Amino acid sequence: MTDIARNIQEIRERICRAALSSNRPAEAVTLLAITKTIPVETIDEAIAAGLSQFGENRVQEAEPKIVHFQATPDLKWHLVGHLQSNKAALAARLFDFVHSVDSIRIAEKLHQAAQEMGKVLPILLQIKLEEEETKSGAHSEEIRSIIASMAEFSALRLNGLMTIPPYSEDPEEARPYFARLRKLSELLESEQAGCLGQRHLSMGMSNDFEVAIQEGATIVRVGTALFGNRSSGWSGSPI
C-alpha cells in the first residue's frame, strides 16, 4: 500500500467516525481531494487508491491536469478557489462543479458559458462569514438576491453553500462558523423550499474536517492530510 493509499484509508476512517458521532451515515460525506500544486503522478496514485473527486484552486493550474485525465472515466473536477470573471468561460468548460460563486456577476458569466455549451453546471454559493480581506464570499445582505437570480440562470443549478472560516490550529475555533453555515442553509430553505437544491455544505479542510462533519458538512476539502505539505512556495492555511 502506498503512502497516499494509507492516507486515504485513514481519512475515510476519520470521516466515518465523525459522521457516526453525529448520527449521520459516512456515505453522506464526499471526500474532495484538493490537488493544488499536486503533480499528475500523485493524482494517479490517488485515483488508483479509489478517489474520483478532485478540487483545484486556480483555473489555469487545473487546465493541464484536467486535460491530462480527460480519458479517465468517472472523475469529477471541482473549482474551490476564487473565480475571476475573465476565467468564468474556461471554468464552465473544465469543471463539473464550482464551489466559489460569490456574486450575481460571476453566476451570469458561468451561466452564459454553460448555456453556450449546452451544459447544466452545479454550483455552490460561497458565503463570507467573517470580514477577512483574503477571503472571498457573498455578504449576508447579498445572499437572497443572488439566490433569486438563479431563476434566470437555467444553465446553473444551485446546490448549496460553501465557506472558509478563519484559520486556527484549534479545529474547535471553526465550529461556530460551520454551525452558522448550517443554520443559514436551514433558514434559506425554510424561506424558499428547494432553493439550495441538494443542500450541500462544502466546509472543512485538513485540520478541521471532523468538526465540519459534526456540524453537517456534506463535502470536505482535504489536501495536506492526503498529500502532505505543499511545495516550498505554498503559503496559507492547510487545505
Show the helix and strand layout.
Elements: H1 3-21, E1 30-34, H2 40-48, E2 53-56, H3 59-68, E3 76-79, H4 88-94, E4 97-101, H5 104-117, E5 121-126, H6 140-149, E6 156-162, H7 175-191, E7 200-202, H8 209-214, E8 219-222, H9 224-227
Helix pairs in contact: 4-5
Whole-number total of structural domains: 1
Q: Count of helical segments?
A: 9
Mean pLDDT: 93
Low-confidence stretches: 231-238
Element-level helix/strand string: HEHEHEHEHEHEHEHEH
Strand percent estimate: 15-25%
**Overall form:** globular
In CATH, the topology is named TIM Barrel
CATH architecture: Alpha-Beta Barrel
Q: Look at the structure and give the CATH class.
A: Alpha Beta
Terminal Cα span: 24 Å
For the largest beta-sheet, the strand count, sense and barrel status come to:
8 strands, parallel
Radius of gyration: 17 Å
Strand order of the largest sheet: 7-6-5-4-3-2-1-8
CATH homologous superfamily caption: Alanine racemase
> Could you give the count of β-strands?
8
Helix/strand/pairing category? alpha/beta
